[in-house]
Design a protein that fits this description.
40% of the residues lie in helices and 14% in strands. By secondary structure, it is of the alpha/beta class. The protein starts with a helix and ends with a helix. The structure holds pyridoxal-5'-phosphate (PLP). Pyridoxal-5'-phosphate (PLP) binds at residues 42, 44, 65, 91, 180, 215-216, 231-234. The modification N6-(pyridoxal phosphate)lysine is found at residue 44. Its cofactor is pyridoxal 5'-phosphate. This is Pyridoxal phosphate homeostasis protein.
């Protein structure tokens, strides 16, 4: 049955790539980094054949959010042989006891580090498994401000966790922030204040801190407001089928809340913006 869908992967991928580039060209150039956004094709629940199909169309970055599925696909003989330059992103919730398993061939970016302890564990595992001479592993800190979401750090802990990664985790490279969430922030108010605040506190240039934000329903908007890494699944590979598992159902998206008013303090603004970021 997915044979039909298979033949469409190339076309749908092409259209998404086009929409990514168009959205990037609509970014306000004076306020936002000019980093070209990276498209991560989220292949969860989809067969290795579809990954190979997208790879053959030029796609290199792929995302998975279950550790076991990432392990299966990243070590799949067909993928290993046909996709030598594949870059795997881990975008799901990570538990410390799964970290060793996670370090698969071609792992490129772990987007969901949500505590200093987890960072330490990823750091020590990477050192032990890959050795000190290997390239540092890129990680992002997952942010969740309002606490309505299940995973991710509140914004006030984001900076310290990023600092911890930079100063204590020699095998890791802090790459930026990741958020799951419909982005409700009002573009006319400029770039996300919370994101800017993190860059300022860390004294990092905005261009060097990535923001992973945006999925099938909102990736263009996310790019317009500064996302540098969009995670797009269903509009490339088709809807996911979750056989009889309520636990696997995608998280429903609450409506975005209204934009902050200008007279609010920057702390309030950043808290509210971050709150909006996490709606998904
Ligand atoms: C599944 C998933 C996506 C992709 O979702 P689509 O709506 O299919 O584009 C993006 N990010 C995360 C964290 C996911 O789990």
């Amino acid at each position: 049955m997915w044979k039909i869908a298979m033949s469409e992967v190339g076309k749908s991928l092409q259209s998404v790539v086009q929409r990514v580039n168009q959205a990037a060209s609509r970014r306000p150039k004076q306020t936002l980094p000019t980093v070209p956004p990276r498209l991560v094709a989220v292949s969860k629940t989809k067969p290795p054949e579809m990954v190979v199909e997208a790879y053959n169309q030029g796609q290199r970055n792929f995302g998975e959010n279950y550790v076991n599925e990432l392990v299966d696909k990243a070590s799949d003989p067909m993928i290993l042989e046909s996709c030598p330059e594949i870059k795997w992103h881990f975008i799901g919730h990570l538990q410390k006891n799964n970290v060793n398993k996670l370090l698969v061939p071609n792992l490129f970016l772990v987007e969901t580090v949500d505590s200093a302890k987890l960072a330490d564990k990823v750091n020590s595992s990477w050192l032990r498994i890959r050795g000190a001479s290997m390239q540092r592993l890129k990680v992002m800190v997952q942010i969740n401000t309002s606490g309505e979401q299940k995973y991710g750090l509140p914004p006030e802990e984001t900076v310290n966790t990023a600092k911890h990664i930079m100063s204590e985790c020699c095998a890791l490279q802090f790459a930026g922030l990741m958020t799951i969430g419909r982005y409700g922030y009002n573009l006319t108010l400029g770039p996300n204040p919370d994101f800017q605040e993190v860059c300022e506190s860390l004294k990092l240039p905005l261009d060097e801190v990535e923001l992973s934000m945006g999925m099938s329903t909102d990736f263009e908007h996310a790019i317009e407001v500064g996302s540098t890494n969009v995670r797009v699944g269903s509009i490339i590979f088709g809807n996911r089928e979750y056989p009889n598992s309520a636990a696997n159902t995608p998280i429903p998206s609450p409506a975005p809340s209204p934009a902050p008013s200008p007279e609010k303090t920057s702390k309030q603004v950043s808290e509210e913006a971050a709150k909006k970021m996490q709606h998904l």
